[in-house]
Amino acid sequence: MKVTIHNSWKPFLKTEFEKPYFQALANFVKQEYQNQTCYPPGSLIFSAFDKCAFQDLKVVIIGQDPYHGVGQANGLCFSVSDGISHPPSLINIFKEISSDIGKPYPESGNLERWAAQGVLLLNATLTVRAHQAGSHQNKGWETFTNEVIKAISNHKKEVVFLLWGGFAKKKAKLIDKEKHYILTSGHPSPLSANRGYWFGNKHFSQTNSLLEKVGLAPISW
Q1: What pLDDT does residue 194 have?
Q2: Full DSSP string of 70-138
Q3: Least packed by Cβ within 10 Å: which of 57, 127, 130, 144?
Q4: Residues 114 and 219 sit within 8 Å (Cβ to Cβ)
Q5: Which of 59, 50, 161, 75 is nearest to 114 (CA)?
Q6: What distance in Å separates the CA atoms of residue 128 and residue 136, rounded to the nearest whole number?
Q7: How far apart are CA 162 and CA 159, in angstroms?
Q8: Residue 11 CB: number of other CB atoms within 10 A?
Q9: Contact present, 152 and 182 (Cβ < 8 Å)
């Protein structure tokens, strides 16, 4: 498995890469990519860590699985590459940003612009088989990404964690609430959003208020 991550992450992730569970995971992923169509492309599996340096990190958004449609997943949760139609959850994220802070709905669904400002867009599972949601769950990725969350909690302070939906909310137990901020709401998927659990959460303005309170630059959402 080719690992491309920003050097700032290596002190925190190197020991995980060396553990037996990760070696087994790497072998599984390698076999899957050789024998199946999988997403994101192999070179983008660790994009979340490559596009957001550890020292710059100030917001964490947690997703579950990469998108499993053709050309969608680019290694950042909820993000799609330029020119790709926006999936329903991303549409609802952009709608909430528009109503929350008045920013126009963007043409591109590529969230690398957020990552460059210190937003870690972390899926709990970093790979998936084409058209088979959840197909790479319980193979070791969750162990790895849980350790990532713990490392951020232990080695950073005043990070804003955005936990959307039941799956993400379970990660709250990994985060030191005395050092960090946790904002929770329903998931932006249509099923949750249309029941009133997403729209109006104002997470984007709240995040910026919290960042400014501790002297950090707000995110240009």
Answers
A1: 84
A2: TTTB-SSTT-B-TTSPPPHHHHHHHHHHHHHH-PPPPS---THHHHTTTEEEEESS--EETTBTTTTTT
A3: 130
A4: yes
A5: 59
A6: 5
A7: 10
A8: 11
A9: no
How far apart, in whole angstroms, are the C-alpha atoms of residue 57 and residue 117?
8
Two tokens, residue 112: 């690398």
65 flagged as catalytic: yes
Question: CATH second-level architecture of 7-214?
Answer: 3-Layer(aba) Sandwich (3.40)
| Whether the Cβ atoms of residue 87 and residue 72 lie closer than 8 Å to each other | yes
Summary mean pLDDT of the chain = 96
> How far apart are alpha carbons 59 and 51 in whole angstroms?
13
C-alpha angle 99-117-174 in degrees, rounded to nearest 5: 85
Q: What angle do CA 59, 61, 66 make, to 5 degrees?
A: 145
Prediction pTM value: 0.96
**130-169 burial, b if ≥16 CB within 10 A, otherwise e?**
eeeeebbeebbbeebbebbbebbbeebeebbbbbbbeebb
79: left (phi over 0), alpha (psi -120 to 50) or beta: beta
How many residues comprise the chain?
221
Run of H or E including 26: helix 20-35
Catalytic residue among 65, 82, 100, 176: 65
Segment 125-154, tens digit of pLDDT = 999 999 999 999 999 999 999 999 999 999
